[in-house]
């Protein structure tokens, strides 16, 4: 085991460490020889008032190879690729039945209009519940166990869907797949925050994080469009299952990245090697019971959504964009299949410009990161403000997203080639991606170790709106027409464009009043690398 930094609270712990080092032929360091009554840090005292504290808190030492921040670039890249594979499975599952819906409904003689969208909506309902549970739990017990458990269950429920004997059972399996499939949305962001301490690296990883979030749902209509008309709608799910099974070895390999969980594991190994050692991680010294789990951990995303202005505003903006994105899975068939008479397979291909726009957004994000880094190196004053790191990307992406909706609505006419409204997908995808890269990065930078909960709140609200608004798609387009409905959505998106401007204007003041940001700042000061402690080699 690598070196660790220990915050000593007692003379008994000092003596234990001296004896351990003597057995290894090592001499105590200067910090270890100091007066045992001199505190090396402020930690939770687990003893009574009349008894000396006999516990030592274990912390990371600078350069520790087991600290996820210090993983090699190769290992970090492999973790990132595995996380992207995990996300593709999750997001592709959301829209998997989209172009197969008529065939699925015909299978079980479902005719009511309200049930047309249920095969996608019930999955997104699971998305609402999943991240609210899995994201906070990953901050409680670690990322790895949550990731593996939910992915295996996801494969099981994906396999169950085409084997369903009835429409209700099919919907139940879709809901269960969404409930576990929503875990990567929150947990993956936490993993990226665990392994990347450099904001630039974290920003790059977040840009790559957006690829599966957008390409997964866009790939699914192509698969379902061609499978349902040739080899049957069930093969849509079999192909998804084959891909997921191919990704399973990579998911099983992903190591634990949550620092507190790793420190707990290390402390337990030390105690197993020496039962007299009173060495614990900070997480072990925190009281754990079912009441605390519910009131503090599982309700944290809701608490952040209600009490944190940054979280609530970001959630509102991203939820609207996300819901509009899922509305296109009904709007595109209305436009390209019904208006222009294209086949289901070709209609699925009409989503490709959206994917092209997503790809175009990535070099924009990378160029911005390069410009930001060079500006910080020059010491430009504007780089001292955290809001300037990420939010300018959303300022560029917001208008693009809104304009694309007006473009789509006003050009979708029989006297205009279908290529013209189809090309509106390019600014749609580019703007959508830039908005998400900027806002999710801002959430991650602002809340760091609480980022999984913040993103769980974001994912939950996005999924709620993505469930509700698609039910209004067909009635809205029927009453307002294609131009009117797209103009309404474009207008709402235009209003939301002002949120990043407000953050740049008042963001520092908002964070200064945030209880989570205040707690995070205090914890970083307490657990910083400059805090003095005893250096010891673990076993």
Care to describe what's here?
By secondary structure, this protein is mainly alpha-helical. The protein has two domains: 3-64 and 259-287, no CATH class; 68-258 and 294-524, Up-down Bundle (Growth Hormone, Chain: A). 73% of the residues lie in helices and 3% in strands. It contains 23 helices and four strands. Strands 3-2-1-4 form a four-stranded mixed β-sheet. The longest helix is centred in the C-terminal third of the chain and has 46 residues, at 451-496. The protein starts with a strand and ends with a strand. This is Major facilitator superfamily (MFS) profile domain-containing protein. It is a multi-pass membrane protein. InterPro entries: MFS, MFS_dom, MFS_trans_sf.
Please give a handful of descriptors for the protein shown.
MFS_trans_sf, 2 domains, MFS, Growth Hormone, Chain: A, transmembrane, disordered C terminus, 539 residues, MFS_dom
| N→C terminal distance | 5 Å
Question: Mean pLDDT, nearest integer?
Answer: 80
Taking Cα atoms only, what radius of gyration do you get, to the nearest Å? 26 Å
CATH T-level topology of the largest domain: Growth Hormone, Chain: A
Q: State the shape.
A: globular
- Write out the strand line-up for the largest beta sheet, numbering strands in chain order: 3-2-1-4
Q: Can you count the beta strands?
A: 4
Number of domains: 2
Instruction: Estimate the helix proportion, in percent.
Output: over 70%
Task: Assess the beta-strand content as a share of residues.
Answer: under 5%
Sheet of most strands: 4 strands, mixed
Report the CATH C-level class of the largest domain: Mainly Alpha
Low-pLDDT runs of 5+ residues are 1-52, 529-539
Instruction: Give the CATH H-level superfamily of the largest domain.
Output: MFS general substrate transporter like domains
* Proper CATH architecture of the largest domain: Up-down Bundle
SSE string, helices as H and strands as E: EHHEHHHHHHHHHEHHHHHHHHHHHHE
Helix tally equals 23
Structural class by SSE content: mainly alpha
